[in-house]
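Box 4.2: Ligand-aware structure prediction
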Amino acid sequence: MQVNNRYGALFDKVRIGPVIAPNRFYQVPHCTGMGYARPQTLAAMRATKAEGGWGVVCTEYCSIHPSSDDAPYPYVSIWDDDDVRNLSAMSDAVHQHGALAGIELWHGGSYVANLVSREPTLGVRSMPSRTDPVQSHPMDRADIRALREWHRAAALRARSAGFDIIYVYPTHGYLISEFLSRASNMRIDEYGGNLENRARLLRELIADTRDAVGDSCAIAVRMSADGHGDMHLSADEAHDLIAMLDPLPDLWDIVISDYNEEMGSSRFMREASLENRVAYVKSLTGKPVVTVGRFTSPDTMLSQVKRGITDFIGAARPSIADPFLPAKIRDGQIEDIRECIGCNICYAHNTRAAPLRCTQNPTMGEEWRRGWHPERIARDSTGSVLIVGAGPAGLEAAHILGKRGFAVSIADAASEAGGRVTRESRLPGLAEWARVRDYRLGQISKLPQVSLYLGSRMSAADVCGFDADHIVIATGSAWRRDGAGRWHDTAVAEFNHDAVFTPDDILDGRVPSGRVVLFDDDHYYMAPVIAELLMHAGANVTYVTTEGKAGSWSYYTQEQQATQRQLIELGVDIQVSTAVMGFDGKSASLACVYTARQRIVAADALVLVTSREPHAVLYEGLLECGLDAGRIRRIGDCYQPSIIAAAIYAGHKAGRELGTGQQSQLPRDRPVIA
Ligand code: ADP
Ligand code: SF4
């Protein structure tokens, strides 16, 4: 395709062995939380990306055999002809938009536990699974022969399912990486010992795949540029391995050894931050290379290609946040790109075994069930609406209602739009979260029928006197000052003190000093980020959590390790499995969550990060004024305090539904007895 703008080079066709990618935008394999059980949801989601211009669209990890079952994590599978039929729905849909479809064949080895299939797990030697009290069966030659047969059969099924690119996947700790590992592979046969022997299985699987599919499909190998950690596969060995195997695959999909960094959130990793580690691969190979780096800036992408770092702009998260990112670059609509904010809420949902959702893109995962399209909003209305609150929920509702043709007035008491997103984006490491606000303000600025009134606190009387067909209340929530939350069911009288602070105080610039006890009963990012802010401000912080780890829910966003490491490095005193029970301005009493034994620590201030209370005053005032509840809709944190993604989703849903009067029953993607 001829693209007449400075990003034209991103739209070059690129040959991958026997197939040709229509451009350089490559959605690398990424988890979805949809798995084999939701094939229609999956197909519609991947198709949307192809429609949005991604030249290659891949599956997530795809199990080749029941001995590789990652339950409870949702994976796809290609075990039989039913799987072929389901996966064909994806490849067909991807092809309809002119993109190539890739499939990541996967065997989990010792890592998984086969909780559903109940097959024995297989390993290069007998090793414990990632989490369960299960060890693998050490593979003998017959097992290796069987594995090769399964992989070959899976490759043939992948071809008949219509895939253009078939992966061999020796990374991320799964079976083939066990063979590559010096530490794990203690075999004394031809599959153990020197690098050539440890790479034998990988070499054989690539050759088997080639032999099976011939020249009809390209073969990709997903390889870590810097090895798998020194004791397993050093960076030098990874280099040698790529050089040694280079004649075999048609494409190198290059990642790095530390998944926490590869999937690093914006708190800890910037765009293109893998470059130093992956750049050398292009100098080793004439085969096309795809790398990732949470690329959202077209200039960065162009620079990566022009400087020869990569041939393809690999993306998972940027393609989730904006399935139409390539099309927008192609059409010169750079300001319309919905940039990923690097919050990893998408990944968290997969890790929670739920279909992925996205903070920036509320249509993600709703392409099939609700028929939501990330870019198409029908212009179907002429009514009017008043929205109170320009946080993420209110801004998203205004954006969608404006696109539908409503005359929208959106008022906020604050002098800046964005609500909690604006405020929280000033906390350490969260600057990119402001993109949530900026995308919506950008869209709204193009809609003359949307008027934004800042510095406009609305009373119930103001709202009742406003002439609008619909009223949307999006007034947010406030952190509780009384300690009620998960640990304390009700308000704690012992917390009633002037030196008790909440995150809202700190966001308002009221920052405690001296010895500060910070009680994290929320378990996500807020308390650790406040600890960081307080330490930078010179306070002495004791971080107290009822959980066993700092920011424990951040495990799901792949941030927990980095969070705890950061607190340790900052010198924060971390007290786990502990609750704060009281505070008197000089000291706080802490209790062990198991024994209830109490101890006293010196404390000049207490920060409570426990739970939030919805701002309900305005809504209740409207009902008292006698306003018809049917005209009012509450959305976001003022209805249900939750993550930012939920506020955006609520705003989007209200935007789509307002005035339509219909709440149809949603189709469910599930196997049904024939
Ligand atoms: P959400 O995440 O649900 O969008 P936020 O807390 O981010 O909620 O945003 C709520 C916004 O509502 C804040 O910007 C706040 O200033 C605004 N707000 C709350 N009450 C009123 C009110 N009575 N009049 C105008 N704006 C209000
Ligand atoms: Fe990016 Fe967050 Fe969306 Fe994931 S959920 S794609 S990290 S904005």
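In the box above, the bound molecule is iron/sulfur cluster. The radius of gyration is 27 Å.
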